Structure formats: C-alpha cells, structure tokens
C-alpha cells in the first residue's frame, strides 16, 4: 500500500496519477474516499486520503490486535521468529474456503437471483454481489453455466471489497 501511495505522490501527469490510482480503486471505494481526478493538483488530496486510511483508520484495530497477541504471550515470539509465523499472516496465492463462524449465522444465509426486471440497474450486472449485513449473495442470471462460472470465479478471485462477492 505504501509503495502505491509513493507512486501516487510522485506522479507528475494526470495519466501517471490515474495509473498509480488504479490498484487502489477497491480500497478507496471501500474507504469512502474515491474521488475523480481532474488535474494533477488532486494528487495531494488522494495522498491525504490514503495516508488517513492507512495511519488513522487502521491504527486502533492494529493496536487491539497487537495487545491481544501480547496478552496471549505470542507477540514476543512473533518478533523473535517472524518467518515462522509468516504463513499465519500472509497468503502468497489467492484462495478462499468456506467455514462457519463460531457464533453461527444470523440471519440465515440466503441466495437471490437477479432478473433483469428485478434490479435497479439499466442492465443486469455481470458479477455476483454480496450483502454481508444480511448474509445474502445476489447472483445474476447468465445465458450459460460456463459464463456464470467465469464471472463468479473472476469476482471471487479479484474482489477484496466489502459488500461484494
């Protein structure tokens, strides 16, 4: 993240700025600070948005996580042997698995199918959407299973954002 922010801050043209911003799109959208870039002067505002999210919004949860590790007596071990703990905190390849949370599901998970006439969009969306607040996944209908599978696999493999599959 900080490397990308560095590229943003070093951009000298609007084209460079757009290229540097591209990897941040999901992050900025989820943080509520995705703004249009109209000129190179918008660069500093974008850097401020990123730095606020990285430093201020993450600081509290990170400190609680760190205190939890300290309470469990694990923090010192992680600091002494960081490579031994890397598999717990870093996944080198994309993958996902399904497991039930220890508190269960409330409300019960549901699936909705998006029909062209049911949605508020001008056309049916291509990708599935998730609403984690109500444990619902919305699946668009496609002409074939193969097309559905391609769009679903793409969504799962390329989306990290809240509220999406």
Automatic annotation (TrEMBL):
<dbReference type="InterPro" id="IPR000569">
    <property type="entry name" value="HECT_dom"/>
</dbReference>
<dbReference type="Pfam" id="PF00632">
    <property type="entry name" value="HECT"/>
</dbReference>
<feature type="active site" description="Glycyl thioester intermediate">
    <location>
        <position position="133"/>
    </location>
</feature>
<dbReference type="GO" id="GO:0004842">
    <property type="term" value="F:ubiquitin-protein transferase activity"/>
</dbReference>
<dbReference type="InterPro" id="IPR035983">
    <property type="entry name" value="Hect_E3_ubiquitin_ligase"/>
</dbReference>
<feature type="domain" description="HECT">
    <location>
        <begin position="101"/>
        <end position="165"/>
    </location>
</feature>
<keyword id="KW-0808">Transferase</keyword>
<keyword id="KW-0833">Ubl conjugation pathway</keyword>
<protein>
    <recommendedName>
        <fullName>HECT domain-containing protein</fullName>
    </recommendedName>
</protein>
């Amino acid at each position: 993240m900080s490397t990308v922010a560095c590229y943003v801050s070093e951009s000298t043209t609007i084209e460079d700025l757009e290229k540097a911003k591209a990897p941040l799109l999901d992050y900025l959208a989820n943080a509520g600070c995705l703004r249009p870039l109209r000129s190179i002067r918008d660069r500093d505002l974008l850097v401020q948005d990123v730095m606020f999210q990285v430093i201020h919004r993450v600081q509290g949860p990170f400190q609680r996580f760190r205190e939890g590790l300290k309470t469990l007596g694990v923090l010192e071990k992680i600091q002494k042997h960081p490579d031994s703990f890397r598999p717990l905190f870093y996944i080198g390849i994309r993958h996902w698995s399904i497991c039930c949370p220890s508190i269960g599901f409330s409300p019960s998970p549901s699936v909705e199918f998006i029909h062209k006439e049911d949605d508020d969009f001008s056309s049916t969306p291509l990708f599935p959407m998730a609403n984690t607040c109500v444990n619902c996944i919305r699946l668009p209908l496609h002409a074939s299973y193969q097309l559905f599978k391609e769009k679903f696999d793409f969504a799962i493999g390329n989306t990290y954002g809240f509220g999406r599959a």
